[in-house]
Amino acid sequence: MLLGCIADDFTGASDLANTLAKGGMRTTQFIGVPAEPAAGDCEAGVVALKSRSIPAAAAVAQSLAALKWLRQQGCRQFLFKYCSTFDSTPQGNIGPVGEALAEALGTRGAVACPAFPTTGRTIYQGHLFVKDRLLSESGMEKHPLTPMTDPDLRRFLALQTKTPVGHVPWATVDAGPDAVKTALKEAAGRGETLVIIDAISDADLFTIGAALAEAPLVTGGSGIALGLPENFRKAGLLSGKGSAFTPVDGPTVVLAGSCSGATREQVRRHAAQHPGLALEIDKIMSGTLTPDQAAFFLMERIRLTPICYSTATPEEVKAVQDRYGREAVAEAIEGFFGELAVTLNNRGVNRIIVAGGETSGAVVSALEIDRLDIGPEIDPGVPALSGSRNGPLALALKSGNFGAPDFFDKAAAVLAGKGVGGMGTEDKSAGGAA
Ligand SMILES: Nc1ncnc2c1ncn2[C@@H]1O[C@H](COP(=O)(O)OP(=O)(O)O)[C@@H](O)[C@H]1O
Ligand SMILES: O=C(O)[C@@H](O)C(=O)COP(=O)(O)O
């Protein structure tokens, strides 16, 4: 393994794995820190943690355990992946985890770059934008778990770190890889462990990637990985093998626990054309709606690609959080989706599309899948994934704000090996109608 990645949530992990696979690295997503060594032909390993919204000390401990395993696999570079909207709180976890990894690797001057221009996330003058809005006016200020109210990444990250936060402005990035390298070296000399770096286009990210060929630690969104495969290719280290993704045909369900803007529209659209079960949170909290009852509803309609969703407006989310507490609601809903996914898979559902990072974490953890192969991209940042539980299983783990309005139908097709094509996967599909 060449590149060892630690992702703070499961959709983020597949977003990053997607970038690396598209860049030509044979990539595997691991669910949690594996107990076994990776396959010998794995070139990039992405360890998916569910550490974005847990206490900082726990996030640090899990990330260091992942680092230890990745080092044992022989990795020569490490990447800490967090959200392109920098999802975190003043207490962490991006700063504490970034600093702990840097300390373990004995390095400073590591880039901190959540930019993902394809999905509208750009950084300029240290400020994060989502399309034409500052982060704090993008809707992310109303996120159920990590409301983002400060778009100045330098200021916000500094709340989370022990050491000073650096900044490399866009003019330096525009001057090329050597200028970036020098700026990062100077930042390290000033004792800055993490350095926000401006990036407004993929070209900027390729420039930064080229500057990072020798960097022990890279931190950021999936965009920061754009230029990394090329460094390994230039060094003659890539095998050129495609992904080991296996398409799966069969019953399909959509589980949506994200309340983000893009998901709300995707849910509205899918539920208008397919059977839908809208979860009443009060009933989940009181135990009067069980995953088994939901599974019964969905199995009755399974040929029609039904959707089960807790997706709600910010006002509805706030009302239930005020009634029961933010953590209690999140835990109950995530637990519900996890149990539901297990029940459905036990009854033969082998294509599961999940919306929401925390929700995906809950579902994949409950399914107890240990690794996933990376397939074709469904929409930017979301690949098809294949693994195994009760036989072959295909998954799509969609970040709340990613994907076109028809994402769920598109995902069902790609998981079956239809529709979007083309990144040299080993196609072992048995075929057949959905
Ligand atoms: N109706 C709801 N009310 C309150 N919280 C909710 C509701 N639906 C989902 N949630 C919780 O909100 C969080 C959404 O986070 P996540 O799944 O990561 O989505 P996203 O990818 O949009 O951030 C989860 O913890 C989920 O359980
Ligand atoms: O970087 C991103 O935007 C995604 O990869 C990601 O991490 C999304 O997180 P969720 O919105 O919580 O799914």
From TrEMBL:
Residues 3-227 form the Four-carbon acid sugar kinase N-terminal domain. Its EC number is 2.7.1.217. It catalyses: 3-dehydro-L-erythronate + ATP = 3-dehydro-4-O-phospho-L-erythronate + ADP + H(+); 3-dehydro-D-erythronate + ATP = 3-dehydro-4-O-phospho-D-erythronate + ADP + H(+). GO terms for molecular function: ATP binding; kinase activity. It holds the Pfam family SBD_N. The keyword Transferase applies. Residues 253-408 form the Four-carbon acid sugar kinase nucleotide binding domain. Transmembrane segments: none annotated. Keywords: ATP-binding, Carbohydrate metabolism, Kinase, Nucleotide-binding, Transferase. Belongs to the four-carbon acid sugar kinase family. Catalyzes the ATP-dependent phosphorylation of 3-oxo-tetronate to 3-oxo-tetronate 4-phosphate. This is 3-oxo-tetronate kinase. It comes from Chelatococcus daeguensis.
